[in-house]
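step=encode ok
step=design start
structure_in=
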């Protein structure tokens, strides 16, 4: 047990719409069935109801884009005598009316994605279950649109007892108009499964609403509203792509791409072509700008500048040497599938990335660590940024209680204000609150500026960010003023909004009428008023959801699909990482080689290959792998530390110390490197230096069992047995499968004459070494003797002697013969 064991680090690396009001009432606290709708979201009606016939679609005042496909009309009639309905379209331009008879087909659930498993089946709302539907054919719809441009058209739906009846028994009308303003651009959005999350797998600070097995089911769709179905741009990815944005000219796409092991620190900045490619050439690694050993840096809600030259995002607050890593993101995982996860940052500063220089740096004026500064969006001229700001706080304070549903009062409370700051070519300036969108007791977030620079449309909710049950869209002048809710708001969740390139249309997502989020359009007039929402039909299957819609300023055939060669590397990386996490070292080795071949510029597969080789006792090969990793990236503190550990294992202590000191030079906060250096100092006889390094390492990496183990041994050698046992108990608790930790704790107990406490520790060490270490068995025999079990002492000492002789360890064998004679004598004395 005298060999050098050093710490190795691996990379685990609305007119006619009822508003629901504040949806903050109490939820069923015991509900764990994901299909059970929380009490505060039940029976939220989408449409106004009055006696007689009610037209739900189109709502009165609806404005349609000129290029939209025929919509489905929808109505309810509570007169049981009505069995057939006449639909009339009366034109304000005095054109000939159009009339149709309808049998009033009942509304049905739309197509499902049958490839999904585990989803909650969608259902119709009470209003939809009794609704009748009718859809004009394309020719009729073209006529309706053509004659409703200059003046509104009136949709009259009348119920009759029969087709020959002279008078209706029910009647309602609604006006519509076709805008002169085309939408003019397709929508790019994520089409996602909505699988109930597994709260037991939740991790603080990790945005992961879907299990890994479902990630390949995500689709990135492009939808032209003059087409009946979306076009799939990407799918089958092994990882999760998140927020995306386009430059105003439609030439650049930016998208967050989760890397291996749920690494949120990757971003793709891709030139758009008919066939676009996410390759390594276009990847930005936010984590490359992190301090090694600190929190993984990731960009939150990154946004491409209008000209495509810059990216603005929110990053973790830089920390000083020795500071504890602070959480920056609150998240909660909930049973109910409709709102399965909530997340929002509570710390962070704005930073901007230059494509030209390849540098990421904080934006002066929005880099105050006393605040969380997040979710920044550009003005159309690129001169200003509008962002959310609040006082920074701990996402999980000491009195934190787990939240169980969206808008649970136990959620960490944070309310953002909107601020405006000049970009000033990266020099920033003085931030100013946006009047009307700040200091109002609400959380104001996710601001989007209209293309003419006149308006800001943002989300307002009670707490947090964006996808809240009570989120509503508000509009305020860019310079500040009175904020008003958009008339297009629906009862449950309104967010993810985006302006069309011409600024005349706003797309947004809502969980109305289904918790499977739907996509809507609304027209924005010159005075900032919104028309009733128009659903973009067939945006996804009825058991899937739409989120993050973004208009892409491209032509009719501007994008065919997106290739993802860079993401193939992540697939192989995650396969290898899972094998390594399961300690399947021999299987992990060829998997790491495949990952290394996929991306020869990434040093991590070689580093992790070294970890697997070291774990299987192939120290020389591990050294070669670490050296290969450093030839790719010589600035990796982890790899220098790992190489030092392997060199020490080979007895090359001087070289080991050089590598580990280099690791600390690169990252003074690398706690494992300090621990390893402390161990080397102890081996070299420099105990004071060893203690200094070990205490520093333990402070930086308190969950590193090696630090407590080595420090405990040193304390025991100094005779400070009580302190030693405290440290060694921590080591055993952190590494219950470490024979060395159990052995050293047992020795400390034995040195304190606590033989009864020592025995189970040494027994554990013996079992963990498969009873193949003669030194451990020697100590175990001694503990049996000290506790009066001489027969066990004799048999164990004989086993140890046999091993020592087979290993040709003459000195140990001699000691064991003497011990064995002593145990035999004691046994005879007790007979």
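sequence_out=
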């Amino acid at each position: 047990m005298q060999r050098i064991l050093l710490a190795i680090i691996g990379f685990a690396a609305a007119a006619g719409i009822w508003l629901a009001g504040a949806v903050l009432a109490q939820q069923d606290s015991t509900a764990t069935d994901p299909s059970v709708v929380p009490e505060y979201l039940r029976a939220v009606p989408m449409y106004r109801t009055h006696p007689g016939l009610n037209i739900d679609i189109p709502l009165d005042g609806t404005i349609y884009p000129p290029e939209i496909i025929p919509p489905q009309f929808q109505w309810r009639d509570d007169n049981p005598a009505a069995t057939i309905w006449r639909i009339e379209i009366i034109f304000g331009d005095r054109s000939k009316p159009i009339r149709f008879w309808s049998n009033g087909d009942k509304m049905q659930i739309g197509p499902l994605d049958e490839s999904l498993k585990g989803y909650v089946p969608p259902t119709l709302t009470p209003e939809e279950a009794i609704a009748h539907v009718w859809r004009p054919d394309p020719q009729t719809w073209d006529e309706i649109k053509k004659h409703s441009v200059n003046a509104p058209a009136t949709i009259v739906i009348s119920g009759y007892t029969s087709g020959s009846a002279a008078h209706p028994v029910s009647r309602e009308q609604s006006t519509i108009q076709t805008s002169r303003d085309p939408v003019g651009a397709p929508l790019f959005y994520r089409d996602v499964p909505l699988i109930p999350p597994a709260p037991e797998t939740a991790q603080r600070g990790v945005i992961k609403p879907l299990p890994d097995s479902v990630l390949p089911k995500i689709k990135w769709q492009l939808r032209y509203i003059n087409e009946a179905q979306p076009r799939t741009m990407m799918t089958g990815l092994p990882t999760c792509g998140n927020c995306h944005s386009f430059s105003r000219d439609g030439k650049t796409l930016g998208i967050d791409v989760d890397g291996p092991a749920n690494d949120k620190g990757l971003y793709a900045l891709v030139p758009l072509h008919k066939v676009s490619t996410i390759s390594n050439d276009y990847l930005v690694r936010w984590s490359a700008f992190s301090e090694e050993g600190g929190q993984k840096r990731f960009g939150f809600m990154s946004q491409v500048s209008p000209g495509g030259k810059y990216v603005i995002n929110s990053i973790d607050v830089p920390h000083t040497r020795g500071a504890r890593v602070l959480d920056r993101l609150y998240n909660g995982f909930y049973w109910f599938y409709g709102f399965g996860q909530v997340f929002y940052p509570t710390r962070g500063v704005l930073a901007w990335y230059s494509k030209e220089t390849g540098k990421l740096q904080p934006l002066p004026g929005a880099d105050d660590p006393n605040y969380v500064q997040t979710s920044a969006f550009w003005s159309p001229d690129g001169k200003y940024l509008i962002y959310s700001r609040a006082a920074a706080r701990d996402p999980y304070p000491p009195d934190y209680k787990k939240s169980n549903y969206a808008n649970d009062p136990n959620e960490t409370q944070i309310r953002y204000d909107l601020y405006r700051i000049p970009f000033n070519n990266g020099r920033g300036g003085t931030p100013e609150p946006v009047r009307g969108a700040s200091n109002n007791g609400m959380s104001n977030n996710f601001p989007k500026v209209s293309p003419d620079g006149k308006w800001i449309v943002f989300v307002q909710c009670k707490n947090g960010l964006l996808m809240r049950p009570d989120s509503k869209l508000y509009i305020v002048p860019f310079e500040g003023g009175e904020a008003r809710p958009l008339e297009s708001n629906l009862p449950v969740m309104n967010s993810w909004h985006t302006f069309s390139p011409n600024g005349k249309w706003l797309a947004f997502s809502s969980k109305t009428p289904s918790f499977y989020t739907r996509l809507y359009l609304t027209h924005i007039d010159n005075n900032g008023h919104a028309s009733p929402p128009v659903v973009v039909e067939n945006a996804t299957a009825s058991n899937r959801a739409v989120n993050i819609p973004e208009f892409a300023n491209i032509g009719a055939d501007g994008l065919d699909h997106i290739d993802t060669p860079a993401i193939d590397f992540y697939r192989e990386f995650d396969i290898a990482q899972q094998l390594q996490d399961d300690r399947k070292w021999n299987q992990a080795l060829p998997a790491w080689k495949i990952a290394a071949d996929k991306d020869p510029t990434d040093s991590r597969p070689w580093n992790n290959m070294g970890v697997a080789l070291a774990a299987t006792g192939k120290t020389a090969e591990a050294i070669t792998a670490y050296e290969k990793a450093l030839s790719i990236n010589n600035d990796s503190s982890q790899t220098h530390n790992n190489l030092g550990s392997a060199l020490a294992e080979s007895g090359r202590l001087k070289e080991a110390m050089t590598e580990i000191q280099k690791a600390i030079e690169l990252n003074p906060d690398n706690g494992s490197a300090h621990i390893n250096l402390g161990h080397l100092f102890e081996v070299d006889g420099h105990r004071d230096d060893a203690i200094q390094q070990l205490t520093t390492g333990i402070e930086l990496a308190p969950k590193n069992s090696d630090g407590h183990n080595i420090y405990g041994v040193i304390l025991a050698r100094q005779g400070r047995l009580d302190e030693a046992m405290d440290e060694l108990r921590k080591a055993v608790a952190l590494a219950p499968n470490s024979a060395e930790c159990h052995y050293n704790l047992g020795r400390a107990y034995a040195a304190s004459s606590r033989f009864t406490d020592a025995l189970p520790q040494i027994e554990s060490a013996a079992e963990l070494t498969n009873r193949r270490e003669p030194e451990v068995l020697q100590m175990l025999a001694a503990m049996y003797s000290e506790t009066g079990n001489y027969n066990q002492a004799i048999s164990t000492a004989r086993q140890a002697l046999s091993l020592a002789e087979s290993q040709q360890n003459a000195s140990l064998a001699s000691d064991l013969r003497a011990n064995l004679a002593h145990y035999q004598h004691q046994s005879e004395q007790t007979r």
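step=design ok
step=annotate ok -> Residues 1-30, 291-296, 319-325 have pLDDT under 50 and may be disordered.
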